[in-house]
Amino acid sequence: MSDTFVPTFVPTVEPAGLTELKPGVWVIPDGAIRLVPNIAIVEGERSVLVVDTGMGRDNARRVLEAARTLAAGRRLLLTVTHFHPEHGFGAEVFAGAATIVYNAAQRDELRDKGPGYLEMFRTFGPAVAASLEGVELAGPDLVYSGELGIDLGGREVRLIEVGPAHTRGDQIVWLPAERVVVAGDLLETDVFPIFPFFPPDDADVDGNKWIAVLRRIAALGPETVVPGHCAIRGADIIEETERYLLDLGSRTQQLKDAGLDADAAVAELEPIVRAEHPSWREPNWVEAGIRCFHATGFTVSRS
After folding, report:
1. Which of 67, 92, 183, 192 could make an S-S bridge to 285, C-beta 3.0–4.6 Å?
2. What angle do CA 6, 19, 7 make, to 5 degrees?
3. Residues 145-173: pLDDT tens digits?
4. Dihedral angle at the C-alpha atoms of 199, 126, 286, 190, nearest 10 degrees?
5. How far apart are alpha carbons 130 and 127 in whole angstroms?
6. What values do phi and psi take at 101, rounded to 5?
7. How many Å apart are CA 206 and CA 269, to the nearest integer?
8. What number of CA atoms fall less than 13 Å from residue 62's CA on the CB side?
9. Beta-sheet strand order (sheet of 39-43)
10. Residue 6, class by beta-carbon neighbours within 10 Å (0-12 exposed, 13-18 middle, 19+ buried)?
11. DSSP letters along 252-280, please?
């Protein structure tokens, strides 16, 4: 993972880029900066929902300030798409200022893996370590399982638990009237799908179930997709990502069936896949994806 990062880059959320996708539906874009997520803020008549905090307390303070400005006294809620540091390791700043909502798997995954990820991310260079200085992991005020509908006042939002896929506790945030889905790292624009496959410490990522989740998202009929990183997209990003995962999984399985171990499968397939997507960022995740599919086996039908 760390070989893709420039040690001096600064993962800073820039609320000045706040953009209104649809009336009352805002995004602070990531600016194509590594370890900065797209952050959504959704307004209702009574409440305002923030989705993701950015990494660390300073970023979270900037997000909270932007949300408070939009809310103008309305109640605040916070949720995160998944437990990874750049998405939710600023939640402590919202404690007391907002109601923090996680699904049960998110809560448990944060408890189980959060400290280890905090230490791992601190090795990604001095700027990242500085962003995580003093961070404490914040638990939820409200926990749900399966699905939670929230009436913000004139606007319905649905938090839908869909993991395990990218992580054990993935969720999407679905705005049915606006046909907008906030997908976290289940979907990325021009970034290789992120496989946090680090056995034995973390092997919950599941490429087969990830494909099923993408089909579930597509069935909702979204028109606008807020991915975890990079540009906002239409629903075509769902098909694009599914096609990539199907191809990677099936080709990995073919090599495994031919008797290649994981190392040999990576050596054979990784350069081919990288060459097929020369403009995509974070090519190190190709190897991780191959190793994941090799370990689990590919079991998904293309139909």
Report:
1. 192
2. 5
3. 999 999 999 999 999 999 999 999 999 99
4. 140
5. 5
6. -120, 120
7. 19
8. 17
9. 19-22, 25-28, 39-43, 47-51, 75-79, 99-103, 142-144
10. exposed
11. HHHHHHTT--HHHHHHHHHHHHHHH-TT-
What are the structure tokens assigned to 151, written together? 């009436």
Structure tokens at 229: 């990183």
Contact indicator for 68, 87 with CB cutoff of 8 Å: no
- What are 163's two structure tokens? 């993991």
Reported as a single tens digit per residue, the pLDDT across 9-48 is 789 999 999 999 999 999 999 999 999 999 999 999 999 9
pTM of the model: 0.95
Whether 44 and 152 have beta carbons less than 8 Å apart is answered as: yes
For residues 245 and 242, give the distance between their C-alpha atoms in angstroms, rounded to a whole number. Answer: 5
The span from the first CA to the last CA of the chain, in angstroms, equals 33
With 0-12 / 13-18 / 19 or more C-beta atoms within 10 angstroms meaning exposed / middle / buried, residue 40 is: buried
**Nearest alpha carbon to residue 173 among 156, 188, 190:** 156
φ/ψ (deg, to 5) at 59: -60, -45
